[in-house]
Structures are given as C-alpha cells and as structure tokens.
Amino acid sequence: MISVIIIDDHPLVLNGFEFILKNTSTIELRGSFSNAKDAFDFLAIETVDVILVDINMPDMNGIDATEIIKKEYPDTQVIAISNLNEGSIALRMLKAGAVGYLLKNVSADELIEGIEAVMRGEQVLSKEMTFILTDKQDEIPTVSQREREVLALMAQGHTTPKIGELMFISPLTVESHRRNLLQKFGVANSASLIHKATEMKFI
C-alpha cells in the first residue's frame, strides 16, 4: 500500500481528501495535519511515500515546506494541492522538488491516479495546469540564498545600511543584490520587486 499524509489548513479540504483516501484500497492514510510543524514532527518519527501539501499554510508556504521535505526525506514524493492555478507558483513548487501539482477541484479518480502515478516515477499535473505551464517555463527567476535573504529583509522594511549590518556585508553589496533582483524580476523599483516576489512566493 502507498502511505500518504496530507498537510492543509482547510478543514473541508482535509475532510474531503480523507474520505477519498480512506476508501481507497491501494492507499493508507497515515495522518492529516493543518500546519507544517505538526507534519514535520510526525515525519521525524515515521516516513511516508507521498505527501499532499497545500501552498498556503499558516506557518510556512508549501514551496519552503517542499524544499525541507526533499532535503530531509528525498525518497518521499510531494504533490502540491492548491486553489492557485498560477503557472509561476506551480513551477516554483516543481523546482522545489514536487512531482505533481493538482488543483483542489480534482476528482477522486484523478487524485488516486495522481498518487499512484508519482509512485511509478511520473509527474502529475491538473489539466488546467498543463496548459498554463507551457507559457511559463522561462518566467521564474533563479534567486540565490543570499538574494532571498536580501528580499526578506527588504520586505520587512529595512534600509540598505541596516540590511548590510544584519547580513554582515557592505551596503554596496546589498545594493548590488538589489539591482540584480530588479533585473531578474523585470521590475523598476523596490516596491514592485517586493510585490512581485510576494506573489511568486519568494517571500
């Protein structure tokens, strides 16, 4: 049997997916969690084959959660479950290590087939996402860890000198990172950068 857990903070979604998976002979539902922390506490004790991960959660977004899961449990397969049919977010989930992206209006048969498919080494996408992603492949900027740190501090409202102080780098280096980020995201100013980076779940 395929062992599965769900991480989603919407009770109706959890209940619906639980009902489907509990009534599927090839799948064993090991747990349902409303936040990433509780799921990580469980995974520290027991590993599973597949994790269904929501994009928006109270304590961590699904992209960051997926990166942690794939680093700590590389053999576990991650499928994103989301209401967001945004190609940029789906691509970031796939880059983070997810092997699937299913919208929450997925049918029971599609959900079960998707879980079984990833265990065969296949990638699964909702039909709507397959169409959207064809136009998005080149739109996701590659951002270094250092640039992500600068982004996060900018979003918190820190000035360039303060960011330099917090990161132990010079203001000139901070400004260099900022210019690179503006170019990568295709925006003209810091406000637009923060807005776009937030939309794309970099922040």
From TrEMBL:
The molecular function terms in GO held by this entry are: DNA binding
Q: Does the keyword DNA-binding apply?
A: yes
Where in the numbering of this chain does the Response regulatory domain appear?
3-119
Q: Which UniProt keywords apply?
A: DNA-binding, Phosphoprotein
Per UniProt, residues of the HTH luxR-type domain are: 136-201
SUPFAM superfamilies listed in its UniProt record: C-terminal effector domain of the bipartite response regulators, CheY-like
Q: Identify residues that carry 4-aspartylphosphate.
A: D54
* Any Gene Ontology biological process: phosphorelay signal transduction system
Q: Tell me which InterPro entries the record gives.
A: CheY-like_superfamily, NreC/VraR/RcsB-like_REC, Sig_transdc_resp-reg_C-effctor, Sig_transdc_resp-reg_receiver, Tscrpt_reg_LuxR_C, WalR-like
Q: Which domain of life is it from?
A: Bacteria
**PANTHER family in the record:** TWO-COMPONENT RESPONSE REGULATOR
Write the protein's name. Answer: Response regulator transcription factor
